Amino acid sequence: MTYNLITILGPTACGKTRVAAKLAHRIGTEILSADSRQIYRGMDIGTGKDLADYVVEGRQVPYHLIDIAEPGYKYNLYEYQRDFLEAYNIVRARDVVPILCGGTGLYLESVLRAYRLDEVPQNPELRAHLEGKSLEELTALLATYKTLHNTTDVDTAQRAVRAIEIAEHYRQHPVAKRAFPEICSLTIGLDVSRELRRDRISSRLRNRVEEGMIDEIRGLLTKVKPEDLIYYGLEYKFVTQYVIGELTKDEMLTQLEIAIHQFAKRQMTWFRGMERRGVHIHWIDGAKSDEKKIEEIERLWKTTVGE
RNA sequence: GGUGCCUUGGAUGAGUGGCUUAGUCAACGGUCUGCAAAACCGUCUACAGCAGUUCGAAUCUGCUAGGCACCU
Length: 307
Description:
By secondary structure, the chain is of the alpha/beta class. It is 50% helix and 10% strand.
């Protein structure tokens, strides 16, 4: 069995992008992003796009799935998978192995574990019918469609409505199935100790504030509603709250920093869970130099081909 | 030098002579196939130290230490 994808994952601020770009440059391939926020145009500093990192030795490494949606748009997992496949096929057509790089666990997992998702458009009649029902009623209704094997679907009424919509869709279109290529990924995780992770997150945040992150968000607020920006979380949430006067600058900085640390922890939790669900991750030491990391990845590539 | 007040888990902060934990935040662990940088769940048992009163004290008394306020 040969690999047809290299995945580089890790928590925020672990240096994924740089390693992925350098590796892509060296082996002449392209990058497919797996980041639920970097898809948005104009959300650059806050999402840590680091677009400059895609220029290696003066050459632009092609990347995909970044800057593909307007801020305020509600992108979802189905769309990600659809867009991923399109980009994947484009790169594969060049007969190279793409590098999937990002930190959005759900997006990564939808590729690595080949979730089968159908396009489920909104169903206005159903939504109108469900309007005003309590979460309890919606949960009971969802239970008539399927066994409730998680609680994420019924966290909020909004999610429960969507879950029912999807269940209703599958009831009406039971055989619809999307073709999904056999993905066999060499999956690399960048492992950074808690202390180092925290240091990097904190200093990176300071840098981004200096680079104009707050102005970026002020600009976005001229065309995106505050609540939509707040929904995006982290930088967009706390800086928006600061800009509209709900937080002082100090409160914003303190709370944001804590929130990013918590986010990084949740990312690691996700990756561990993903391993339990059967995704094999080769962890490499994130404290090493980029060159060492790339050597290690290349060594893994050679020695594990055919495992 | 004198008088009074305070001292609770990593932080903050309520409370009562004994019965089950305050709460909040942080930290840590987890959940997860459709907004995931979201949403949600779990864990963390402390009352400054010593001596005494009491069947029983973190809660009462005394001393010691630290802090705060006021007085000469």
